[in-house]
Amino acid sequence: MFGKNALFRSTSRTTLSTPPGYYESSADRRLDPEGVIYSPQSLDEVVEDAVEDVVERQTPVNDDLAGRFPQVASSSASQPMPEPVVMTWSPPRTVSSGMEGITYTFAQTGRETMVLLPPARHRDTRPAYHVSWYEDFFMKNNFITTIRRGGSEHGQFVGEFNLKGRRGAASLRIGSKNQRFLNEVFVDKNYATNSKFYKLQYDDQSPVLFWNREDRTVCLNSRSEVIATYTPPNYHSKKAALQSAKLVIKPAGRQPDLCDQIVILVLITERLHASSSS
């Protein structure tokens, strides 16, 4: 690359016959393979040779070389430099739930399946729950309903209930807990003001939930705080948006286990309402 630069030659080659008064500097004169005697370049000459080669390849010159060889730096500076590439990204706008809560929409995805979808601008737009059901072969209009996390039937199991025509053997199972008879955990009595409320408490470690039985729109906790509201589908309206059921989870109801039971309670009350009105 640098021609016959002795700086890069091996120091193991033999020198000429040692003249009188030989000392270490005699190693400065060496033979190349053809037997030609030459002297190595100085360091500045080697560096300048290297810089010129860099310029020919259009490689940027570093600051140290530019200071020592300004003529080379000016030549390199004349070469056009590419425009810098700037990567930018704007995060999607999200809905601030605040005290209003997060509104989930029940969206049917198949003949016997539906999902709960968060708002389109929510920070996580994946389905929150997957709901599926099938009819009991031996009992017409009796459906076994299963709830799972996420958007498919392969999600984590949340719960399952079988109303069995509102008979005594109706059952409910939540998470990994043992199955319970529905009449042991789900009660229909007067619990608040003069309105009838459904009460759901799966076991002693589970939260107590109250659901307005009259219009099926409000869910309360044991402190009478509103933790969720529900809007049933309005099939009298021609607006598609009003024909979808919606569930609003308030800040006090967002703990995962509590939210699971709110969804289960909504589905039980809706199934009871559908069976009583059919």
UniProtKB/TrEMBL annotation:
Residues annotated as domain DUF6593: 125-272
Region feature Disordered, mapped onto this chain: 1-28
Matching InterPro entries: DUF6593
Extent of Low complexity compositional bias: 9-18
Protein name: DUF6593 domain-containing protein
